[in-house]
Specification:
Blueprint: E1 26-28, E2 33-35, E3 43-47, H1 51-62, H2 67-80, E4 101-106, E5 112-118, H3 124-134, E6 139-141, H4 142-151, H5 162-175, E7 189-194, E8 200-206, E9 227-230, E10 234-240, H6 242-248, H7 250-259, H8 264-276, E11 286-292, E12 297-301, E13 307-312, E14 315-320
Parallel strand pairs: 5-6
Antiparallel strand pairs: 1-2, 3-7, 3-13, 4-5, 4-8, 7-8, 9-10, 10-11, 11-12, 13-14
The chain binds aspartic acid (ASP).
The site of aspartic acid (ASP) has 14 residues, from β10.
Length: about 325
């Protein structure tokens, strides 16, 4: 089957600003990073321009809340936003018209919880957290995940908004039922937070690729691909064409590169290089963000058009990412 991929998003083209790799109040050597408690922590970074989400996370962090709580609260903002058609309620459906959501979360102890292909539940990030904290499992799928969510008190609801339904009906007219990557909006929320104690957690939530085949799952809920946290080192998360992130186990790779001494920025760039080294990347986008134990951040994408939002000291800044092309 022909796999159509992301079309280069050129709306934010330009070289952008290189920011984010500055270490904050820390000493680093090849194997260890010592956090200086005076460093300007906490902070949160998320994929795309999501100031409401990073602000919600910031509010938790600012009240000495945990990075895990910050991640859940931040991700929930985008999941509830029906105008964000790549996440949660209002997400674009699969080619059969069903909205199926994927999410995962990792805490500072390296625990992981995830749900894949779950329908009718607006907040998969919270279900993922419950899987992590209240079951002996780490990953639940489809009907079973939905049943678990309902038993845990989540209310089932229709996630297909009129706007997403109409766009899907338009798509059907010309698509020949061929699954495509969600071209216009590819704004899976990947979020990393470090709290005042210097502890890192992360989350990733998405409706996946618009008009995908029923049952398709991307990188976002898969540990090591869409998200990886090692609280000794740092964290990384991804957005974009999940198949490519999965094949390179991108987020785990980036954390391991940081373990070997690379800055978050250098590690994100190497993660992207592993994808572009295979060639044929003209028509899809992948982007990574990363954070280390000192609160230094990095972000990089294959093509222009990606940005990351950082909230530090209560102020949101949207950073246009540098890119390979
Ligand atoms: N990474 C997501 C997936 O492959 C898509 C996206 O970021 O929009 O499911």
């Amino acid at each position: 089957m022909k796999r159509r991929t992301f079309i280069k998003n050129t709306t934010l083209s330009g070289t952008g600003i290189a920011l984010g790799a500055a270490a904050l109040g820390c000493t680093e050597n090849k194997n260890t990073t010592t956090v200086n408690k005076d460093a300007s922590l906490p902070l949160v970074i998320a994929t795309w321009n999501v100031p409401n989400a990073t602000e919600a996370a910031w509010h938790v962090l600012n009240k000495q809340g945990s990075s895990l709580d910050a991640i859940e609260q931040g991700c929930r903002v985008e999941e509830a936003d029906v105008d964000n058609q790549s996440v949660g309620k209002g997400g674009r459906p699969d080619r059969d018209g069903k909205v199926t959501l994927d999410a995962c979360i990792m805490d500072t102890a390296g625990n992981y919880g995830a749900v894949v292909c779950v329908q009718n539940i607006k907040h998969p990030i919270s279900v993922a957290r419950k899987v992590m904290e209240e079951t002996p499992h780490v990953l639940m799928a489809g009907k079973g995940a939905e049943q678990f969510a309902i038993e845990s008190g989540f209310k089932p609801e229709n996630l297909l908004t009129e706007a997403s339904k109409q766009q899907w009906e338009e798509w059907k007219k010309t698509s020949k039922y061929e699954p495509i990557i969600n071209i216009e909006n590819h704004d899976t929320i990947g979020m990393l937070a470090i709290d005042t104690n210097g502890n890192i957690a992360g989350g990733c939530t998405t409706s996946g690729l618009a008009y995908k085949m029923a049952g398709r799952v991307g990188d976002s809920p898969i540990i090591g691909s869409g998200l990886f946290i090692d609280n000794e080192i740092g964290g990384a998360t991804a957005t974009g064409m999940g198949e490519e992130v999965l094949k390179t186990v991108g987020s785990f790779l980036i954390v391991e590169l940081m373990r070997q001494g690379k800055s978050p920025q250098q590690a994100c760039e190497e993660g992207i290089r592993r994808i572009v080294a295979k060639g044929n990347y003209d028509n899809f986008q992948v982007a990574y963000i990363a954070m280390n134990k000192a609160g230094a951040t990095g972000y990089y994408s294959i093509h222009p058009g990606f940005s990351a939002t950082i909230n530090k000291n209560g102020e949101n800044m949207n950073h246009i990412s540098n890119s390979h092309t």
